[in-house]
Design brief:
- The strands form seven sheets. The chain has a seven-stranded parallel beta sheet, with helices on both faces.
- It has five domains: 103 residues, PriA, 3(prime) DNA-binding domain (GIY-YIG endonuclease, 3-Layer(aba) Sandwich); 74 residues, no CATH class; 182 residues, P-loop containing nucleotide triphosphate hydrolases (Rossmann fold), CATH 3.40.50.300; 184 residues, Rossmann fold (3-Layer(aba) Sandwich), CATH 3.40.50.300; 93 residues, 2-Layer Sandwich (Alpha-Beta Plaits).
- It contains 21 helices and 30 strands.
- The protein is 34% helix and 23% strand.
- The two termini are 37 Å apart.
- It has 745 residues and is α/β, with parallel strands linked by helices.
- Helix 18 packs antiparallel against helix 19.
- Helix 11 links the parallel strand 13 and strand 14.
- Bound molecules: adenosine-5'-diphosphate and zinc ion (2 copies).
- Adenosine-5'-diphosphate binds next to helix 8.
- The site of adenosine-5'-diphosphate has 15 residues, from helix 8.
């Protein structure tokens, strides 16, 4: 057996591993993450390095390979733990080890951290007085200036020393004589800029208290060898966040550290402040707006123990805390917890692995738990807790479902049903706020010719172009842009136009039908700019608009107490996506959207407009009944064999050469049969064209495999991966695996 060992754990050197032989007596003790002593270089000096992977064959001539000397005992440094997390990711999601390592170990920016220097007088006044005498004789004015100043202050910031006109070389000379000490410290960039903090004064109610106690007891006892996985299912506003804060407080008092994952979009000033008010500068955050350097700094602060709580999106799971006690995943059902690029890991699963490995606990929280998580809670893999009431006195919204087919039959050709129209007018009159939600972006859907039916498509991708209000057609996959033609390029007809509904169209309709209404629009186009998102939300929150129109972005995050009406313009759009999770996503979106109405003292109402009012997830969402939704959904997943009832692996093959790709995909399908897993246990679907069969002139095919056992899918993956690597023509194509994908390839 051989091991790859890295000696320098900086991001840039991660792929510079060295091969070592594992001596027989150590074979059972060496695995990725273990710190070992190895002979290194010409002199075979013994140094330390981390094992990153194991293999049965060596990278080069076996007789030249040195042997691992020994294991560094009694230490599993945090680096080692992160390496074993990388190994878990590599094994379970299909990626190269280097890629997994680079995901886990943060990038150190080449620009160094900011340092501050202090000059300190060494504690020996006698020798200082001697020195002063000596320098007076020599007329060494600069040295004297510094020594006199230090005799008075003992310790000075470099900025002050600079003001005396003393150069660094002078200070260094004194340091060499042992008279002073120059201390250099990194100043970590702190991303939280806080002002006026109200004191924290929440006392948990009985329901919350019971959950907090019960979870904490479990964490303390570690009956499963770690703190367990706990799912809190609590309606929006039921006070989950307060429960987290209470448990965090107890965990900190035990000297442990905490990671809090929040979907990026909900990672707002408001949320962070709630933690900050309770825990002050024990808290830090990371998010995608931080530079690599700032991010690195936050991770360093965590490693040094300067902070105890890290809040951030998916990648905060890699925070190098040395004494991790708890990982919280808020809104655990969110799709963003799954990485969309390789390695396609799911933060929930990575968190559970890390917790098990480091003796920590995991808390998942959601108003609409992922079907996967609820399934595991019901089967006893997770512990389940319910919060059924809103913490404050507000009551859940009244929900109306409107059948849009009947509206059309009545002759209503506008975007708004009579019910919604009537309620919009009512709220505008009462000066209360309204949110209108549509599940799609852009001015309109696809552009096509009404004479000949030609659809305007991207020349590089297999998707339609979308019309934007600058009169450009844009491809959302590759960014291709072209001016909207006046006439059909096919038949020259002038009846070429956009179909469908989008946020811009809704905004136009609102302006036309309710001319006094002040509107704000939030979608991909208006939030491109830095802070665009926060700006729109704060404008709305300050009452600068009556109506906020947007995509799913508006249903998450902020609380607007003055919003008493939520209109869901077209509830069906997410139902028809070719994805087994589309009902789940629809239910989650609708429930969250409804949750936006009536957060304050005023009672809220929500209107769901739909063409399929008989659809189960729409009915369940209108009643805000998670159990009803779950029961019908799990039945569907059982009958049609979808996760969580089975595991699903997607294999994506891509190539510029269409013919080669056809051949390859058939070959890969045949390989599945040779992998050693009994094909009777597998259900193989495909190969088929991917949802988008071409992006940027690269063709894409997919094969799906279902199996009851996840680990058998991993065997199939390992076999194919291995075969693919050795294949002669593998440069012409690429292969990617995705387990239980959140969306189709
Ligand atoms: P969730 O995270 O479940 O959506 P939050 O924790 O945000 O719910 O709670 C909703 C609101 O109720 C917040 O303003 C919160 O401060 C308040 N709240 C929660 N629990 C209590 C409590 N025990 N006493 C007073 N206010 C509470
Ligand atoms: Zn035409
Ligand atoms: Zn394109």
């Amino acid at each position: 057996m051989y091991a790859k060992v890295i000696v320098d754990i900086s991001h840039e050197k991660l792929d510079k591993g060295f091969d070592y032989r594992i001596p027989a007596h150590l074979e059972n003790e060496i695995y990725p993450g273990v710190l070992v002593n190895i002979p290194f270089g010409k002199g075979n000096r013994i140094i330390q390095g981390y094992v990153t992977s194991l293999s049965e064959t060596a990278g080069y001539e076996a007789d030249k390979i040195k042997e691992i000397d020994s294991i560094v005992k009694n230490s599993i440094p945090i680096e080692g733990r992160l390496i074993s997390l990388a190994w878990f990711i590599k094994e379970n999601y299909g990626s190269a080890m280097n890629q997994a390592l680079k995901t886990v170990i943060p990038i150190k920016e080449t620009k160094k951290s900011v340092y501050t220097k202090r000059v300190i007088l060494v504690d020996d006044i006698v020798s200082v007085d001697d020195a002063i005498e000596k320098y007076e004789r020599k007329h060494a004015t600069a040295r004297l200036k510094l020594l006199y100043a230090l005799k008075e202050n003992k310790e000075m910031d470099w900025s002050l020393v600079g003001k005396l006109g003393v150069s660094l070389s002078v200070a260094k000379a004194l340091e060499n004589e042992g008279l002073v000490e120059i201390k250099e410290e990194a100043v970590y960039r702190n991303p939280i800029k806080y002002t006026d903090l109200k004191p924290y004064d929440i006392k948990l109610n009985k329901e919350q208290e019971k959950i907090s106690k019960s979870i904490f007891t479990y964490i303390e006892n570690k009956s499963q060898g770690f703190g367990g996985v706990h799912l809190i299912h609590g309606i929006t506003g039921s006070g989950k966040t307060e429960v987290y804060i209470d448990i965090i407080d107890k965990v900190i008092k035990k000297g442990k550290e905490i990671i809090v994952l929040i979907p990026e979009i909900a990672l707002t000033y408001q949320t962070v402040m709630r933690f900050y008010r309770k825990f002050g500068d024990k808290v830090s955050i990371i998010n995608s707006k931080l530079s690599a350097g700032e991010r690195f700094d936050q991770f360093e602060r965590a490693k040094n123990g300067d902070i105890k709580i890290m809040i951030g999106p998916r990648s905060a799971i890699f925070t190098p805390f040395r004494n991790l006690g708890l990982i919280i995943i808020d809104e655990e059902h969110e799709g963003t917890y799954k990485s969309e690029t390789a390695p396609r890991y799911h933060a929930r699963e990575a968190a559970i692995f890390r917790a098990q490995n480091e003796g920590a606990a995991v808390i998942l929280g959601s108003a609409t738990p992922a079907v996967d998580s609820y399934y595991k809670a019901l089967t006893g893999e997770y512990n389940l807790y319910e919060l059924k009431n809103r913490a404050k006195t507000s009551i859940p919204a009244d929900v109306h479902v409107v059948d849009m087919r009947q509206e059309l039959a009545k002759g209503n050709r506008t975007m708004f049903s009579d019910k919604l129209d009537q309620l919009i007018k009512d709220r505008l009159e009462k000066k209360q706020q309204i949110m209108l939600f549509i599940n799609r972006r852009g001015y309109a859907g696809f552009v096509s010719c009404r004479e000949c039916g030609k659809a305007m498509k991207c020349p590089h991708c297999d998707v339609g172009l979308t019309l934007h209000n600058n009169n450009k057609l844009i491809c959302h996959y590759c960014g291709y842009e072209v001016a909207m033609p006046k006439n059909c390029p096919e038949c020259n007809s002038k009846y070429i136009a956009a179909f469908g509904t989008g946020t811009q169209k809704v905004e136009e309709a609102v302006k036309k039908m309710y001319p006094t209404a002040r509107t704000l629009r939030m979608d991909m186009d208006t939030t491109n700019k830095k802070d665009g998102y926060e700006k729109i939300l704060s404008q709305f929150s300050n009452g600068e608009a009556d109506v906020l129109i947007g995509t799913q972005m508006i249903v998450k995050g902020h609380d607007f107490p003055n919003v008493t009406l939520v209109g869901i313009i077209a509830a069906d759009l997410s139902l028809y996506a070719s994805d087994y999770r589309s009902s789940e996503k629809t239910f989650q979106l609708l429930t969250q959207a409804e949750g936006r109405a009536g957060r304050g003292k005023l009672r809220g109402e929500a209107v769901i407009q739909t063409y399929s009012p008989e659809n189960g997830s729409i009915i369940a969402a209108s009643k805000q009944d998670y159990t009803e939704f779950y029961n019908q959904e799990i039945l569907y997943r059982t009958i049609s064999e979808y996760p969580p009832v089975v595991s699903l692996m997607a294999i994506q093959l891509t190539s510029k050469d269409e013919k080669f790709l056809d051949k390859l995909s058939i070959m890969v399908k045949q390989m599945i049969g040779k992998s050693g897993v009994d094909t009777k246990e597998l259900r193989i679907i495909g190969p088929a064209n991917a949802n988008v069969s071409r992006i940027n002139d690269v063709y894409r095919k997919v094969i799906y495999i279902k199996c009851k056992e996840y680990k058998k899918l991993i065997w199939v993956k390992d076999y194919i991966e291995n075969y693919f690597e050795k294949m002669e023509e593998n440069k012409k194509a690429s292969i990617q695996f995705d387990f239980n994908p959140m969306s189709g390839f």
